[in-house]
Specification:
Layout lengths: L3 H18 L1 H27 L2 H14 L2 H5 L2 H15 L12 H37 L9 H26 L3 H24 L5 H21 L1 H8 L10 H4 L5 H14 L2 H6 L4 H40 L3 H36 L10 H26 L6 H53 L1
Helix pairs in contact: 2-8, 2-14, 3-6, 3-14, 5-6, 5-7, 6-7, 6-10, 7-8, 7-9, 8-9, 12-17, 14-15, 14-16, 15-16, 16-17
């Protein structure tokens, strides 16, 4: 019989092997590292090509395109999980016409068909919403930059990503993680190269159109070429005979997460649109400085969360095996390290912006004032702690604290919109920091600590 130390050593060895051999994870981390490295290069080109007001229009258009995440409603995670369940039920090496796995195959086919119809409708609503929101936000801003034609073109192209998103989620759940993550990395790398080339040759706002076309191209390749046979194999099957349906068995599973995802987007992803929508040249300039700063802070946040995501599956596995203490210790260490990395990186960015006047090229005029970045960082750290708590709850396979999360996030969203419109960037960052750190995080932490005590 093995000693406790031998058992622990064996577990650690297995964990290490799992980390080394998980190629999809390596591709995901490589993609995030590329974003962190390529982001400053893109930002430098944006600063060199656009005036500070035009920079605001550029990031405002990017923010408008990003509302597509609202229309996903958190259903992609449901599709990944449901696809994984049904695929696991299909016996390896057995025809999908076999009695043992026929219903599972039919349910997977229904997922493919129904999700396609659902997201095609969502993409149409996105096009109409994107055009309207973009026109309302940008039309009163008087700059020399012609933004309306890029807006008209880019929104339908971005809608392609919404229409293809369910197929990619189903493929990921069905076991094609390596393929999906590898091509996401290729998508990000080629997108960066296209953005750099477009900025260098003077395409200005059409750069965003070119980058969006790259995303649509790779998604279309995966769905219609590389994995078309797999999707068509199940899509053509008849409906399941066990009563399984999209409306009853899929959509209701994620309504809590859908509410949280929409509230989170409204509270933290429309900063630039809020400022540029104040409708003046000064507001466009403020939006440009905010957008440039958020480019850097977003990359920092992604790297900090990447550390959390690398440990998520391991913590889930420990909880599944009943090893609660091991999982808790690992998660505490993960939370501490990721938060420390976030604070260190934000502090470094603060130091860089403080030192920019010494360079003498006027770059400090393209970013937030140091004190504004410091206040914003308080909200970013609080938001990171919210994400860490949510990941732990999901690792325990428990429902999220949707009431506390939605109330806190909607309060933050209202504060950001009201004070951002009234007092521009200074009002926005103060409102975000105060609402996130003093309302959203305490509400969520109260529920989180109760969950830890009960479980």
């Amino acid at each position: 019989m093995e000693s406790p130390e031998q058992v622990r050593s064996s577990r650690l060895m297995k964990i290490g092997q799992r980390l080394q051999l998980d190629r999809p994870l390596l591709f995901a981390l490589a993609a995030k590292c590329w974003q962190a490295v390529s982001g400053p290069v893109t930002l430098a080109l944006v600063i060199s090509v656009f005036s500070v007001a035009e920079q605001g229009i550029y990031y405002g258009l990017v923010s408008i395109i990003g509302i597509q995440s609202i229309f996903e409603l958190g259903l992609l995670n449901v599709l990944i999980g449901q696809s994984g369940i049904e695929t696991a039920r299909i016996s390896k090496g057995e025809s999908i016409d076999g009695q043992a796995n026929q219903l599972a195959a039919q349910r997977l086919g229904l997922l493919i068909r129904s999700s396609r119809q659902w997201f095609l409708m969502a993409s149409l609503f996105y096009v109409l919403s994107g055009w309207c929101f973009g026109w309302i936000t940008l039309s009163p801003v008087n700059t020399q930059l012609d933004w309306w034609m890029p807006l008209v073109v880019v929104i339908p192209v971005a809608a392609t990503s919404i229409g293809l998103a369910p197929a990619l989620a189903i493929l990921e759940g069905a076991g094609f993680r390596e393929s999906i993550y590898r091509f996401r990395m290729v998508q990000i790398v080629t997108g960066s190269i296209v953005v750099w080339a477009s900025l260098l040759i003077g395409l200005k706002l059409w750069t965003i159109v070119m980058a969006t076309c790259v995303q649509a191209f790779w998604a279309s390749y995966l769905v219609f070429v590389r994995h078309a046979d797999f999707l068509n194999r199940f899509r053509k099957l008849p409906p399941p005979t066990d009563g399984f349906s999209w409306g009853r068995d899929v959509v209701p599973m994620q309504w809590r997460v859908a509410l949280i995802s929409v509230a989170h987007y409204l509270s933290s992803q429309l900063f630039v649109a809020v400022i540029v929508g104040r409708n003046s040249i000064e507001s466009a300039a403020d939006a440009g400085r905010l957008g440039a700063t958020l480019t850097m802070t977003t990359a920092i946040q992604m790297l900090a969360l990447a550390w959390v995501q690398t440990k998520f599956s391991l913590v889930s596995a420990h909880h599944g095996a009943g090893e609660r203490e091991t999982a808790g210790t690992m998660w505490r260490q993960t939370a501490l390290v990721s938060t420390a990395l976030l604070c260190l990186a934000l502090g470094t960015l603060f130091g860089v912006i403080v030192a920019m006047p010494l360079i003498g090229r006027g770059w400090e005029l393209r970013f937030l004032h140091p004190w504004q970045l410091a206040v914003l960082s308080v909200g970013l750290v609080a938001n990171h702690l919210l994400a860490v708590q949510s990941f732990y709850v999901m690792a325990r396979r428990a429902n999220p604290f949707w009431i506390q999360a939605v109330v806190g996030l909607l309060f933050t969203a209202a504060a950001v919109w009201i004070f951002g419109r009234m007092y521009s960037t200074s009002g926005l960052v103060i409102a975000y920091a105060v609402a996130t750190a003093l309302v959203a995080l305490p509400l969520h932490s109260w529920a989180y600590l109760g969950f830890r005590r009960e479980k």
